[in-house]
Amino acid sequence: MHHFHYVGKELYCEEVPLKRIAAEVGTPCYVYSYATLTRHFEVFDGAFSSVPHLTCFAVKANSNIGVLNLLGRLGAGMDIVSGGELFRVRRAGIPAKRVVYSGVGKTVEEIDYALREGILMFNIESAEELELINSRAGALGLKAPVAIRVNPDVDPQTHPYISTGLKKNKFGIDVDLALKEYERASKLENVEIVGVDCHIGSQLTELAPFVDALRRLKVLISRLEERNIHIKYLDLGGGLGIPYQSETPPHPREYAEALINELRNTPYTLILEPGRVIVGNAGVLLTRVLYTKQTPSKKFLIVDAAMNDLIRPSLYGSYHAIRPVIKNDEAGEEVVDVVGPICESGDFLARERAIQKSTSGDLLAVMSAGAYGFTMASNYNSRPRPAEIMVKGSSFEVIRERESWEDLVRLERIPSF
Ligand SMILES: Cc1ncc(COP(=O)(O)O)c(C=O)c1O
Ligand SMILES: N[C@@H](CCCC[NH3+])C(=O)O
C-alpha cells in the first residue's frame, strides 16, 4: 500500500498528488498504481517459482484492459467467467492459451468463442455443461481441454455471499460425484481431460480451508489415476484475502508454501486464480465532498461517489478505509456516515466512521478499492460510471474515460408505436 502515501500533508499515488488527478480528470474516479500492481503480481507469482505454475489473474476483480495488459506483460494468464471477459483479455493482447474459463452458466455462444480462440482449459461446473461442451467441440471439429470444478465442501470462513465451495453453493460438482463425471468425460469423443479445479471463496484470511480443499482434491486425483485418468493442471482457484482494516491474511509466500508442501513430488502444473490480492490494494476511489449535513441523530458527509461506483459496503457491509487527500492536523476528527447521492438508505461508503473533519469541496480517498470496485459499478440513478486512471511514477493516464450522459442512452430507442 506504500505507493499510496502522504508527502507532507498530501496523499499521493506514486509521485502524483491525488489532488492533481482530481483537478484534471474530475471526481469520482478510480486511481490505480502501476508499481503496486507490478509488485503484487511479482510477489504472488514469485512465491510459486519453485514449481511449474501459471498465475491466472481473476479478470472479474478488475477487467480494465490497461490493467490486464500490464499483468499480461508480467506473464500472467487469465481466469475468465464470460465471453465478455475473454474479449477483454484478447483485446489486452493476452494469448488464449493462457486462459482458464470458469462459471456455472456458459452459453453456446461463449463456449464456441472460447473453443475457437483455443483457451487452455474449461472448468466445468455441471454434467449438462460437460455434454454441451463436448457437442460444441464436435460441431466445430475441435477438442475441448477440460477440468471439472470440484466442490470440496469446505467452509472458507468468509462472508456468506462470497463463499463458493460449500455443498449448498451453486458452484462446482460435488467432490463425491466428480469421479463419475470424470469417468463419463473420459468416454466423450471431443473433450480431453487436462485438469482438476476448485475455488472455495473469496477474501480468505486463513490457510486451513485452502489446505483442506487441496487434500480433498488429492484424494480425487489418486482415484482418477487408479482409473487411468491422468491430469496435467491442478487449478486451486483464488481467494487469498487482503487487509482492508485489521485483517491479517497470510502472506502470498505463506500461502504458496502451504500449497507447495502438500504437493511434494507431484508432476502437476499448478494454476492459481488470484484477483483481489493482486489489485485490491493497488487502487483507490477518489471522491469529493458535496455537502455536509447535520441531522438530529448524526452527521453525514455527502460525497460524489456512491454505491453505484463502489457497491461493496452496501452489498457486504465491507469496510474501506477513508483518508483525507489533504491532511489537516488542526481539524480534528468527527464521526460521520459517508454517503452518496443515490436514493437508497443502503447507499453508504462508511458508517459511523471517525475521519478528519471535512467540509464541502474536500477530497477523500476510499482505500483498497482496486478489486470489485469498477467491475461492479452500475449506472443506477442514471449516474455515468467513473473514470479510471493509471499512475506510473510521475505520470498518469486515463485508462477509461468517464461516461457521459450521452453514453447512458446510446443503446436505447423510443419504440415506433
Ligand atoms: C472461479 C473464481 N476464481 C477466482 C476468483 C478470484 O477470487 P479472489 O478475488 O478472491 O482472489 C473468483 C472469485 O471469488 C472465482 O469465482
Ligand atoms: N465481489 C466480491 C467477491 C466475489 C468474488 C467473486 N468470485 C467482493 O467484492 O468482495
UniProtKB/TrEMBL annotation:
Keyword field contains Amino-acid biosynthesis: yes
Question: What is its cofactor?
Answer: pyridoxal 5'-phosphate
Locate the Orn/DAP/Arg decarboxylase 2 N-terminal domain: which residues?
Answer: 36-279
- Which residues are noted in the entry as pyridoxal 5'-phosphate-binding? 239, 273-276, 372
To which pathway does this protein belong? Amino-acid biosynthesis; L-lysine biosynthesis via DAP pathway; L-lysine from DL-2,6-diaminopimelate: step 1/1
- UniProt EC number: 4.1.1.20
Q: Which GO terms describe its biological process?
A: lysine biosynthetic process via diaminopimelate
Catalysed reaction(s) here are: meso-2,6-diaminopimelate + H(+) = L-lysine + CO2
What does the record give as the active site? 343
Task: Provide the Orn/DAP/Arg decarboxylase 2 C-terminal domain boundaries.
Answer: 29-370
Per UniProt, the keywords (alphabetical) are: Amino-acid biosynthesis, Decarboxylase, Lyase, Lysine biosynthesis, Pyridoxal phosphate
Specify whether Hydrolase is a keyword of the entry.
Answer: no
Q: Which PROSITE patterns match?
A: ODR_DC_2_1
- N6-(pyridoxal phosphate)lysine modified-residue sites: 60
What are the coiled-coil residue ranges?
none
Its quaternary organisation is: Homodimer.
As for what it does, the entry says: Specifically catalyzes the decarboxylation of meso-diaminopimelate (meso-DAP) to L-lysine.
Q: Which family does it belong to?
A: Belongs to the Orn/Lys/Arg decarboxylase class-II family. LysA subfamily.
Which named protein is this?
Diaminopimelate decarboxylase
Q: Which organism does this record belong to?
A: Thermodesulforhabdus norvegica
Query: What gene is this protein a product of?
Result: lysA
